[in-house]
Amino acid sequence: MKPDPPCLDATQEQLLSELETLRRMLADVEKPACATEGEGMVIMRLCSGLDLAGWELLCHRQDLRDWLVLPLAADPLPFLARIQATVRELAFLSEHDPLTKLYNRGAFDRILSAELIRSARAGQSLALVLFDLDDFKAVNDSYGHPCGDRVLETIGSLLLAEKRSYDTAARVGGEEFALILPGLGLVRAEMVIGRIVEAARSLKIVCDGVDFPLRVTISAGLAITKGKMATTPEKLYAMADAALYQAKAAGKDRVMTAPIADLTGPPEKTLVRADEKRFLFTGLTKG
Fold it and tell me: In 3D, which of 247, 159, 260, 245 has the Cα closest to residue 200?
């Protein structure tokens, strides 16, 4: 049973009422046509008797993370440390998936572009792997979305545990994940990904309200550039995606590898229809 939240004193209640009123007023203010993007105001109010602990209570209860505070007489360092922590938290949330704590698609695209530039400049190999949970829709349909979330969290934890400190793990879609592996050639990358696919196969995922542990499998598509010539993120991603599709078509729960990017031209367009690809990924046809 969760303890009751601390009560607000009269000063905090008054400040909270004023902040809520100010929020509503600011939301209704129309920006003048002559205003420029850089214009704005700092709004200040003296809050007698309010300390850092009291401000923290207000922030957590009313999500006031965009308000900055500093004391008039006390040591400002704790307040500055809190502002710094808030900035770090917001930066983390902007680049990470809230469920799995992996990088999100936007951060993944940025990191992949940077790693490809580094790979070409240094002439070093770079591996990109796309993972997809097999028949994941059936998990949500049979056991509910909270159980599906537990499966996604578990796969995210697996990728974090298996990757090296300088590898990048991301959730790039609903049930699709990615790994960027700098410095790995074909043989070593296939060994790493094979180990991850095998580890996923061995997982026993416990969901609330489900009487038995769930077992899941993942399919993986691997694409490699040797860094001998510039390769675009779009090309490498398309090659990994095509290899992932091949893994699904071959029976799922396996790794398939695309031709080395430096030795191929632009990936050919697939002739497989969308409904056929949907069946391979989800096991379901369009109704």
Answer: 159
Q: The tokens of 220 are what?
A: 């993986």
Q: How far apart are CA 263 and CA 226, in angstroms?
A: 9
Q: Position 150: which residue type?
A: R
CB 217 within 8 Å of CB 274? no
Residue 39 known to be catalytic: no
Q: How far apart are CA 36 and CA 43, in angstroms?
A: 19
Q: Which of 115, 175, 176, 190 is catalytic?
A: 175
CB atoms within 10 A of CB 129: 29
Cα–Cα distance, 131 to 240 (Å, whole number): 9
- DSSP class of 228: S
Digitized pLDDT (tens) for each residue of the chain, 287 residues in all: 444 555 667 777 888 888 888 878 877 776 666 666 666 777 777 777 777 788 888 877 777 767 777 777 777 787 778 778 877 887 888 899 999 999 999 999 999 999 999 999 999 999 999 999 999 999 999 999 999 999 999 999 999 999 999 999 999 999 999 999 999 999 999 999 999 999 999 999 999 989 899 999 999 999 999 998 888 999 999 999 999 999 999 999 999 999 998 876 554 444 455 566 666 666 665 54
